Amino acid sequence: MSRFHLGFRRLIGVSILGLSLTGCVTQEKYNALRLDRDRQAEQLAQAQTDASTAKAEADAYKRQLQALMDSGNGQNGLAVNLTQQIAALQAQLDDANRKYADALGRIGTGAVLSPQLTSELENFARANPDLIEFDSARGIVKFRSDLTFATGDATLTPKAKDVITRFAGILNSPAAINYELLVAGHTDSTPVSNPATIAKGHKDNWYLSSHRAISVGSDLIADGVSKQRLGMVGYADQHPVASNGSESGKAQNRRVEVLILPTTVRGGAVAEAPRATVRHTAPVAKELNKDTGSTGPSLNK
Questions:
Q1: Backbone angles phi, psi at 260, to 5 degrees
Q2: 8 A C-beta contact, residue 292 and residue 149
Q3: CA 118, CA 114: separation in Å to the nearest integer?
Q4: Residue 90 confidence (pLDDT) above 80
Q5: CA distances to 102, 104, 113, 182 from 109, in Å
Q6: What distance in Å separates the CA atoms of residue 225 and residue 272, rounded to the nearest whole number?
Q7: Nearest to 224 by CA among 272, 157, 159, 276
Q8: What is the average pLDDT across 76-92?
């Protein structure tokens, strides 16, 4: 009990004693005085309870406010982290775009591959004319998408996997071992609309071109090409090499290019030992093919 409460009780007691000493009071007045004392004691107790409740609520609000402030700081930190990651990815994309533009601008400059490597790649393309085209003026090996990938997604066909294995052997040869490589995916201008294609994660031409570039790059890595040498990027339909107004032009635009760049990996590249990889290629119905125009525009992607 508080000191104020004890004092109040003593004051009431003294008052009653004073009344008893100074004269007689009626029982009615005595009872009224006791009721008034008890009522004031209850009010005091209620005031103390209310004060304790208010303090507890104030403390709770302070904790909630601090939690909100801490959460805000965490969100700000997350936003800063995401901004930094986006900036880093943008820098990588800018670098890939620069390298791609440099490679496309090499024609007529004399900045081509060595005669030995050029000869090896020309022989490689001649051995696989349905799948491979080699641009010796720019040092670009082009994989035709219609024969490189399974229908409707970015899955490599068994033949493409075998050809990429032989291609990796050339890239790891002494004539090419130190060159950087950029794998660039391209599509035609027909939008992706097939639900089966979208369900596989290829939501539009940007996704599809990127996923196909990653498929080729990943297989090169599996066949021993160093990760240090590789970059992978998708350009959707933004870099056509022919008109999209005809089926033959669209077929030329659907491609994955491997650019052998005139830059070398710092410190020299080291070929990696090929990993033991179980290759699976699941057959997919032809009508789901994004690349083949024979199924008609509505099923093309």
A1: -95, 105
A2: no
A3: 6
A4: no
A5: 11, 11, 12, 20
A6: 6
A7: 272
A8: 68
